[in-house]
Amino acid sequence: MQRRKGERRTAKKPVRVGDNKTGTGEVPKNSNKLAKSLDENIRVLKERFSNDGTVVFRRFQNRYLPEIKCCIVFIEGMIDFKHINMQIIEPVMEQDLRQLSSSSQNFLVDIKDKVLPVNDIEESEDLEKILQSICYGNTAFLLDGYDTALLIESKGWEVRAITEPESEKVIRGPREGFTEHIISNISLIRRRIKNPNIKFRFMQLGKQTNTTICITYIEGIALESVLTELERRLNSIDIDGILDSGYIQELIEDAPLSTFPTVGYTERPDVVVARMLEGRIAVIVDGSPFVLTVPHILVENIQVNEDYYDHFIFGSFNRFLRAAASIATISIPAVYLALVTFHQEMIPTQLLITLSASLEGVPLPTSLSLIIMLIVFDILRQAGARMPSAVGQTVNIVGTLVLGQAAVEAHLVSAPVIIVTAISGITTLVVPTLIESIVLLRLFLLILSSFLGLYGYFIGIIMVYLHLMSLRSFGVPYMMSVTRIRDHDGQDAWIRAPWWSMTLRPKIIGAKNLVRQVSNHNRR
Amino acid sequence: MVKITNKEAICIAVLFLLGSNIVIGSGMDVQNDNWIAGIFGFAYFVPFAFMYARIQALHGGKDLPEIANHLFGRVFGFIITAVYTWYSLHVGALVLRNFGEFVKITTLTETPLLVIMLSFSVIIIAAARLGIEVMGRLSTYALPLVVLILVFMEAMSVSQMNFDFVKPVFVHGFQKIARAGFSAFTFPFGESVIFLGILYSLKKRESAYRIYMTGMVISGIILVTLTLMNIFILGPVEGDFYFPSHSSFSRIRLGDFLQRMEGTISVSYAITCFIKASVCLFVACKGIASVFGLSDYRFITIQTGLIMTYLAFILYKNTVEMENWVINVYKYYAIPFQIVIPLLIWIRAEFKNRKGKRPKKSEELEINGGEQEEAGNEF
Prior knowledge:
The structure holds two protein chains of two kinds. Chain A is about 45% helix and about 10% strand. Chain A contains 17 helices and twelve strands. Chain A has helices at about 1-10, 40-50, 80-95, 100, 105-115, 125-135, 180-190, 225-235, 245-250, 270-275, 305-310, 310-340, 350-360, 365-385, 390-410, 415-430, 435-470; strands at about 55-60, 70-75, 120-125, 140-145, 150, 200-205, 210-220, 265, 280-285, 290-295, 470-475, 475. Chain B has a single domain (about 5-380), classed as Amino acid/polyamine transporter I (Up-down Bundle), CATH 1.20.1740. The longest helix of chain B has about 45 residues, at about 65-105. The radius of gyration of chain B is 21 Å and the shape is globular. Chain B starts with 5 loop residues before the first helix and ends with a helix. The chains are: A alpha+beta, B mainly alpha. The interface of A and B includes residues 350, 462 and 507 of A.
């Protein structure tokens, strides 16, 4: 069984470089070939598709030449009925094939070349390939007396319309988002790069699911070293199923134990194309609207496509706010706790009096109540993300009134704790791709500062910083262009420089073809 | 091999020289002339900086144990390596203790000292383990922050300054001040001899001069300004404070809102002490790895880091003893490490260099060419 699968893969995958788990020297057995007899072929296929009610075997004949017996095999739900009826059954059934038959050397080839008006058709003798093809939604055309089948493209199934992605909305910018259909996703990218240099390499992953994935890059811009490494990592995946690009992301990440993502993902074609233009490589996974991009560095998390479409000063301001918010969200609870419990002298007297008044009568220590409130907030966030929209009102009321106001009025937590939790909670949402790291880091820093004050916070920050410094994504330092402010990398990190000044691509990622534009004469 | 840029090395050097000195101040005892003593210490250090840089420049790409083995053979090289390993371990422990003591006295009064130092040593060990490249990149980030905090605090405290405190200038006489300057030489400037343990990772060997000079000038300016400022705010008794700049910054009062800002300054203390201690730990681990012939120093960072922490814990019984050590003992203790042995190494290196000049020249060129290519490939 294992061997057959391997063959199937190599047959369908021209890009699968240098890795053939089944070994190459094996000769396919006779049982993998079709027989000459139509009945025998149908029997074999039925046997392989046993207990599968969706497979349709439709036998028919030519009306002028009844001795031509043929059968098409397809899977209901994966095909376009109209297409099969009009383009396959009708021509073979209705056309007068007598003349064609009498003059023909190879009748099957003649049918392929002269009868069937379909654009994508291929011949195959390999049973496994035929089975695979049927599973993909193609139609197999079997003719009595020939041990070759025609595999006719007839895919057709319900797909979700291209809509604006829920997770990445913009005010200004294209509103298209990826869907679950890989071909339409590819077309979304292709439509933006009208250039033969853009390459799409296909491969299948997942031993059971046989999910199609596609590596996309622009030749001449993408780094070969990253491409080879990506292929090596993808080829070493040996999982049974891939349901979302998240599987692949986790399987190819550089630092799987780190919560910081070293593989980027997005739902927007314009973002993917922008990243590809900087030298990155995208991985499209069938069935997932999230397209992966590598290498992924920290600063990409605060870059939003709208920055590039708005005025650059406004874009820079927004980006700065995002950076500040992401730092604030992990720091505010920890710093507040440190100030209140260890460094009261740093709080101005008036504020200190107010604070201590609010702490009056609260049974829990500040550290504990902060931790509890942050966890409650995260629970609310979880509930909000998954709940049916009908109960949204209830969650809102419970969240705001009961847990907020009522808790303060009942002196269970102090009001500043609620405020700190709220600020920290809101700022989490500013950088959605880092949310996993932020939620955990916030608690980590909070715990550290609960027993060492500001020094604990400092120790935590340095630890995070050292960790980030040691991270790499496909050979690219994760903190690239965050630490270096002066050279051209800094143009697109903390700020977004105007387009006419960004003449170069990012340093290491775009090193192969550094020049983005020579210069813009309108401006200089 | 890991390489650091000149900028990173300079940033490490500045932070290293500031480390723990901005916390406890130098052990100078000439009161309102302390700042002049600082300038003297700086002046004394200039020839030594050249000497250290020269040692490194003669042996590009080699760290201290390798230089010692190369110059003195196995046995004496071993001894010198062991001595410097001890010295950097000790300096690291001193820094850790200084910072721990500072934290314990000013903020976490009820937390045991060992807990403070142990938690601090976690990041020191992590940094030493990740190596000099990460430390360098961290420093380029941290130095502007430290300088910014110091400048900000100094600007804030102008209203607290009494410029008459510095008068009469030179009241202690040239001789006494010059002698006090020696204190400033040994701590912090002379401690940069430990820096020889990391400069091997420079891209070009000649940059050792630049790093020593620039690092020394920047940190010298910061330290002298800080001493001067402490004198302006605290008066001639500045030297009697355990943590002078902390005390002077705690007097900042701007309206009702900005006051007691010393918590901010402790961030820059923490950064500088952290960098200095990690450099010391890194060099010590490298030394131990060389002495015992280990292939990788990373295996022993945790153990050495813990030894350093315990050493820091048992160094003194209390803060007074620490002050006594800094003011009265350290300047003599440091002489062999900072003056005698480097001098020996330098003389020996010069002789060896003269002797083998002809073949060495071509080798040098080759190495430089190769390194440049490597640097080009990297980015």
